[in-house]
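quick one before i forget lol
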Amino acid sequence: MKDVIQDIFTHCEKFYIRFKAVQPKHPCKICCLIHGSDKDFLTWILMETLKWTFLLLVVYPVETITLNYGKERDINLKETSENGLGDFIVSQKKQNWTRCGDNMCQCKGYQARCVNHGHQLNYIPRFEKNITKLNFTSNYLPFIDNETFTNVTEFQLIFLVLRNTSIKNCTRNAFNGLKSLRSLFIRNNTISSMELMDCLSGITKDLNHLDLEFIYLDKPWDLDLDKIMTHSKISNLHLRSIEIPHYNQSKLSTLKHLEIIQIYKSSMNTVTFDYSSTLKKLEFAHNQFFEFPKFCVNDYAYFPHLTYLNLGHNNIQSIKPELLTCLKFLKQFEIDNNRIHLIESNTFLNLPKLLLVSISYNGPDMVLQEFAFNSSSLKELYLNDNDMYFVDGQKHVSKDAFKYCTQLEVLRVSSNHFEFTTSQMFEETFSTLVNLRILSLAHGGVQFLPSFIPKYLGKLKTLWLSHNNIIYIPEGYFISLHSLQNVQLNSNKITTVKPNTFSLQFLKKVKSIDLSNNTFSCTCELLWFINFLKTSPIRKRFIHFPKEYICGSPTVYSGKQLLQVRLSERTCAITYQTRLIIISVSAGILLLVLTISVVYRYRWYLRYILYMARFQHVRYQRLLNGGENYNHDVYLSSCDADFDDVIYDYLVPRLEVDMGLRLYIPQRDGQGNKIDQIISNMDASRKIILFISDKYVEDGYCEFEASYAYNKYINEKRDLMIVVVFKELGALNVTKTIHKILAVDNYIKWGWDEESVELFWLKITTAINNMDDLIP
């Protein structure tokens, strides 16, 4: 609570309170000088007290707890690692660090780290000895004035980090006492634009590095530094996550020594450039540009000495050669993660100093025209993850896109599409790159090892072909690659490695080979490689061995490491010819068994085919004879269960005796082979009555009779079927054949009541006596 009250009065200091650090152990003393007793003023004090009590007790503690986890510890600290300051800013390691600064900090040499104390540390401590670098992170310093840094002004402080310190107010000339300051980092604070300008106005003119990140201003910033930092020697300006929709170079016109400008994640979408002869490095990554900025006016450059340009992570859709041609000193150009759809011919032709181009992660529509990378100086080219197709006839990549790029040493085109790229297409596209040292075709669906690599790339040192679909390595493939030192063929589908795949000379000079995560076939063909990995000292060249060298087949070894495979020379001594004979005989036997199985499975359907040729001839003969050459009037088809219960005792006597019909009943009249009897007697019957029930469908011969009757109906085109649903069918028993029969015939339902019986006999009599049974 003491800290809360102190912070409330600190907020009022501009009006009536003065705060000053006086002792190391008791650094804060509060002096309230309230002028007058006016009621409005007291009311204002009460409201401000309530507001800041809420902020300090509820909001800020949460913020402090969050910051103690170091959420932003890895924010763009390239400059610190380059200067050996990475451990000083972000490391949690405590080796060689000693307690200092009122026992609230850690010191090592001339460096001091005061971090993660929250509200407990709300002032700059005193130090017993000189420090030149101070990291003040995740503490509480809401108000900065010209006395805040009193305890360190006697030192030659050159490096200061103020991160996550809840800065809200900053007076003009707050940094006046830090005369030796060269690098200032202010990060993760909330402050008004006016307060920020006041804060920066007192910085020494000798400051050369200003880093402002995650500054939450009350309105978009116009970057108006030319007035407050006049004649400053600042050379490196780094801004991140500060809203700057429009960049105006004239606002930095007084910064005559500015060499590096880095503005990230600032919602920037438009620019107004002005001439600068000192600027060498410009980064506008992670912004909202939709068009490529204009760096040239009438072939003159705004930044004639620019060597590095990064426009990554924007929405730029095209690169016009004329927008770059004036940058004669440009060495490195990066435009990853945009929406580039076209790289025109000779885009980089007029950039004589260009060494590196990176155009990666640009989506599926990017097209490379012929001579797109025509350059006499370009040495490194990165085209990863552009979803481009290297296929004849596709618009994506011209086969001459890399022509006249003969000095190229590094080419990375991984995560594109090579699934359908032929050997000829590979050669036509890449054969001119004879000076390549590093080539990556990883994650591309490559189906084979391209022949252009050993044929043209004799200087190659590193080859990445991992995560593809390569099945085998041609023998002697690497013989001509005398400079090759690193090979990555992991995560492919390679099954075997033969003695001549890698020569002994090659294995001795290569530094690393990665064949991990392939689907090795642990058979006798791989015995040499397995023994080599077990015994040869050169096996150390194979990285990730033995853990990730796993058998994919056969089943007995599947999932096991190659070291666990037990194959002997005796086991593998059988000759190739013997294995071929065994395989051939086994395949023949398997084929014979399969043929017999198929014939047996479809034996009834095959019988259909044998008798089907008779249908048209029989129908023709019967038409000539007027239909009088039938041996039977009716073929009666029913299952044994239904026949014994009803049909034989009740229906048969009436059909034969009362109606005088000639019946063929398989259960009574059938002799010999059942299939032959069914076919011959159905052919000799004018009508066929099918008594269908669940038992009928489950009987194999009844199913055959129904199928044959339906085929006769279709092929002879006669209304020959009389279908009687003897008992209601279950849903599972309505087979395809039964469904077809019920669909084409107006079937009769059997019933035991008097009315149903009379209706049944009426329909049966009508159907049997209908002599005009030809279907139109």
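fyi Confidence is low (pLDDT under 50) at residues 1-39, 51-85.
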